[in-house]
């Protein structure tokens, strides 16, 4: 990749970069949301129902020392990497409302295409995980009342996919979530508090737990590497410029407020439920903590139902870049209730989520998807690309020590990305042999 100097940037036309990639306007709202609302969007992502899996997918493979230190370090490096991207939002005298637009502006067409590809792989896999989560929550609720074996996980995943589609049709843009973010926060608090209280109660009643890291040999090493990908998956959206596009001016200052909110207040519930869950059940903790807890049926039902509902809302956040692309490409503007716009969303968003749902039901291995997503897209997008873009854009304003720091980050996370990808693919291959397709996990 060859970066352009300031003179080339200054001479660039507003509607393209490198003369061969058009940057379209957007059919969605920009500069409409407060930093506080954006902070809740970010916090909704990290405290989604995925948080119920970190006791099993992060703490169990890493143990107390690796898990606690890893989560804290991941918090700090994620805040740093996201801040780098946020600072570049107005680089070159214009707003870059899409991740691919920023990469293309700095490097050119190849980086534009590569970033777009990585981002949509990232978002597709996150959405796949949300549908698996939503289906798992529905199944857990069902089993609390009817344990007759009639309904299997793929059926619940299909139901979850349908509900997600209905929500996507009814909520046209990311900014339109509005009051739904309030509901999302209430839902998150419900299942996090319930999981925490029930886990705490179980932990005080059960005998000493086994906190040793399971596995042996090569398998144990691969599992630990895979868990490192889950660490970065927990905190990063892979769509920061798209979220920042919705924030009011001054966009960089307000985005930094939202990020500080996310990585201080926002991470506390994640820490609470993750550490308590692992303390209560040790290395027997499952990838869905509510499968471990004991307590009144109605309380566990509330936790599972709120986890399901929050997953529907959170999925909409991570699917919004795809929706924005489609709406902009086909000129879908105006009232969300117009027949043309409704029909378009039913067909295009419905088709996208139908494919998502099919993949979710086909390979419902949630922990493996988290590892693979972190490996092949979160590492490159959030850490490798962010550091290299900042290094390139601010090269003349950095000391040799600062430049060396960014290069160390680039090299380290490149190695981690390759290692974690191999580990995640191995885990999926192993699970695919252990379980059949459309498995009822």
From TrEMBL:
Its main location: membrane. It is found in: Cell membrane; Endomembrane system. Pfam families: Aa_trans. Keywords: Amino-acid transport, Auxin signaling pathway, Cell membrane, Membrane, Symport, Transmembrane, Transmembrane helix, Transport. It comes from the Eukaryota. The chain crosses the membrane at residues 64-91, 111-133, 153-171, 178-198, 218-238, 259-281, 301-326, 346-366, 372-392, 404-429. Residues 33-425 form the Amino acid transporter transmembrane domain. It is a multi-pass membrane protein. Carrier protein involved in proton-driven auxin influx. Mediates the formation of auxin gradient from developing leaves (site of auxin biosynthesis) to tips by contributing to the loading of auxin in vascular tissues and facilitating acropetal (base to tip) auxin transport within inner tissues of the root apex, and basipetal (tip to base) auxin transport within outer tissues of the root apex. May be involved in lateral roots and nodules formation. Belongs to the amino acid/polyamine transporter 2 family. Amino acid/auxin permease (AAAP) (TC 2.A.18.1) subfamily. PANTHER family: OS05G0424000 PROTEIN-RELATED. This is Proline transporter 1. It comes from Stylosanthes scabra. The gene is PROT1_2.
């Amino acid at each position: 990749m060859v970066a352009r100097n300031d003179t080339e940037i200054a001479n660039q036309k507003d509607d393209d970069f490198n003369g061969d990639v058009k940057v379209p306007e957007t059919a969605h709202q920009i500069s409409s949301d407060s930093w506080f609302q954006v902070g809740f969007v970010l916090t909704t992502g990290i405290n989604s129902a995925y948080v119920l899996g970190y006791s099993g997918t992060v703490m169990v493979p890493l143990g107390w020392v690796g898990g606690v230190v890893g989560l804290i370090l991941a918090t700090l490096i994620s805040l740093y990497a996201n801040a780098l991207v946020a600072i570049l939002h107005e680089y070159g005298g214009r707003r870059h409302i899409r991740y691919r637009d920023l990469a293309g502006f700095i490097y050119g067409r190849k980086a534009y295409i590569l970033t777009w590809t990585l981002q949509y792989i990232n978002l597709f896999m996150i959405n796949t995980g949300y549908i698996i989560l939503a289906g798992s929550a529905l199944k857990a609720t069902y089993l609390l009342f009817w344990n007759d074996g009639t309904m299997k996980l793929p059926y619940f995943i299909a139901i979850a996919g349908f509900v997600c589609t209905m929500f996507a049709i009814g909520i046209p843009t990311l900014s339109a979530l509005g009051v739904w973010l309030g509901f999302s926060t209430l839902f998150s608090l419900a299942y996090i508090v319930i999981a925490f209280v029930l886990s705490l109660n179980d932990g005080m009643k059960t005998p000493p737990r086994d906190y040793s890291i399971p596995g042996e040999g090569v398998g144990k090493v691969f599992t630990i590497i895979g868990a490192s990908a889950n660490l970065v998956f927990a905190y990063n959206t892979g769509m920061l410029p798209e979220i920042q596009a919705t924030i009011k001016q001054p966009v960089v200052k307000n985005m930094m407020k939202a990020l500080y909110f996310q990585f201080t207040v926002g991470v506390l519930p994640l820490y609470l439920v993750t550490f308590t869950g692992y303390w209560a059940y040790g290395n027997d903790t499952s990838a869905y903590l509510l499968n471990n807890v004991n307590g009144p049926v109605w309380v566990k039902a509330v936790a599972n139902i709120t986890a399901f509902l929050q997953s529907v809302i959170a999925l909409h956040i991570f699917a919004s870049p795809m929706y924005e692309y489609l709406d902009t490409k086909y000129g879908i503007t105006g009232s969300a209730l117009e027949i043309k716009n409704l029909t378009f969303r039913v067909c295009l968003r419905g088709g996208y989520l139908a494919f998502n749902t099919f993949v979710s039901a086909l390979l419902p291995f949630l922990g493996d998807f988290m590892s693979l997503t972190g490996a092949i897209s979160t590492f490159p997008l959030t850490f490798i690309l962010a550091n290299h873009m900042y290094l390139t854009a601010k090269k003349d304003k950095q000391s040799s020590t600062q430049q060396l720091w960014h290069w160390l980050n680039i090299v380290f996370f490149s190695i981690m990305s390759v290692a974690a990808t191999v580990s995640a693919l191995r885990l999926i291959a192993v699970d695919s042999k252990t379980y059949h397709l459309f498995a009822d996990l």
